Amino acid sequence: MIVLGIESSCDETAAAVVEAGRRVRSNVIASQVKLHEEYGGVVPEIASRAHAERILPVVQRAVREAGIELRDIDAIAVGHRPGLIGALLVGVSAAKALAWSLGVPIVGVDHIEAHLYAGLLDDEAWRAGDVFPALGLVVSGGHTTIFRCESATEVRKLGGTIDDAIGEAYDKAAAILGLSYPGGPVVDKRAQRGDERAHDFPISRLKPGSLDFSFSGLKTAVLYAVKGVPSGAGWDAKAPVELSEEAIDDVCASFQRAAVGAVTLKMGRALEQWAGEGPKAMMLGGGVSANSRLRAEMLRLGEERGVPVRIPKMAYCLDNAAMIAGLAYERLSRGEADGFDLRAAPTGASA
Ligand code: KG4
Ligand code: ZN
Question: Is the pTM of this model over 0.85?
C-alpha cells in the first residue's frame, strides 16, 4: 500500500510517499525558516501564505522522487492537528482535493503521535510485539510530553510541560544570546565547545514523582546570567549585551546540561513508575530529538535500564510528512479512515 503524506502544521511544507508504513520512497520538506528569521519566530499569516504557494510543487516533487504516478497512490494522509489553524487548513484542503480527485481514502493524523512513529520509519523488521508497550517522549518547539504507548495509535499522556516547551526554551535562550533562529541547532553546536559547569542553571524537578516539566525558570536564569539580575529600574530588555564567544559557549553548555538533565530525570522517573513488566522500548521524536546531548543521554539511560531506545534518523526528527504517512498506514491497516468532513484543529488529542 502506497500512502502520500502531507504536513503543514507550522513552518515546513512537506510531502512524502511511504510504502507499507515503513519504506520511505520520498521525503520532501520546504522549510520557511528564511521567511520567519527576521521576526525571531513563526508568523502565522506568513506561514499560511507560504504553504499555499508551496503545497502543490512539494506534492509533485514527492511523487516524482518516489518514482510513481499519482494513480499509484492508495490513500492520502494529512497532519490535521495540532498546529497553526491557517497552516493546517492548507494541508487539509490539499489532501481532500487529492483524495477526492483520485478516489482514494483520506486519513487525518495527530502530528504529535506521528512524531513518536518517526523512529520506526525505514525499519521494515519491527513488529508491534517488539516495540509496544513503549515509553514515548516528544520534544519539539511546541511540546515536551511523555506518553505511554500501547500501540502506534493508542497513546496516553503521562506528563507534559506546565509552561514553555523545551524547543521554545532553546529558541528563547538563543534569542537572549543574540544567536540565529531557530536556536536549537546553534545552541547545541556551541554547547559542545563550552564549559557546562560555568553556570549553575536549575534543573526543574517539580513535585517528587512528577512527570511534568517546567522550563521558564531556566529561561529566566539564562536571562539573568546574560543581562544581570534586575534591580531598581532594571535593564533595557532590548539593549544588546557584549559577551565573548567563549562566554556564549559556556552559557549554551550550561543551558543544555540543565535542559537535557530535566528530560533525563523525568524519563528515569517514568521508567521507575511504569506499571507492569516495563516498556519494550523508549520512542523519541520531535525537533529536539536531533539534539546531540539528548540522544546520548537517552541511549545511556536505555542501556542502564535495559530498554532499547528508538531515535528517529535526523531527517525524521524535524517536521516531515513521512511520519504522517507512516502512522496513517497503521490506521488504514485496521480498516480505519476519515471522511471529507475531516477538520483541521489547533489542539491535539493529547494536548
Ligand atoms: O518538531 P519541530 O520541527 O517543530 C515542532 O513541531 O515544534 O521542532 C522544532 C524545534 C525548534 O524549537 C528547534 O530549535 C528545535 O526543534 N531543535 C533543536 C535542535 N534541532 C532543532 N533543539 C535542540 N537541539 C537541536 N539540535
Ligand atoms: Zn513537530
Answer: yes
Residues 256 and 150 reside in one and the same domain? yes
141 lines ligand 1 (CB under 6 A): yes
Q: Does residue 171 line the site of ligand 1, with CB under 6 A?
A: yes
Question: Is residue 214 within 6 Å of ligand 1 at its C-beta?
Answer: no
Alpha-carbon distance of 293 to 281, in angstroms, equals: 19
Tell me: the pLDDT tens digits for 328-339? Answer: 999 999 999 999
Rounded to whole angstroms, how far apart are CA atoms 281 and 265? Answer: 17
346 inside domain: no
State pLDDT tens for residues 280-323: 999 999 999 999 999 999 999 999 999 999 999 999 999 999 99
On whether residue 178 sits in a domain, the answer given is yes
- Full residue range of the structural domain in which residue 17 is found: 2-120+314-333
Q: What is the CATH number of the domain that holds 46?
A: 3.30.420.40
Burial class (CB within 10 angstroms; exposed 0-12, middle 13-18, buried 19+) of 170 = buried
Cα–ligand 1 centroid distance for 319 (angstroms): 9
Q: Which ligand is nearest to the CA of 139?
A: 1
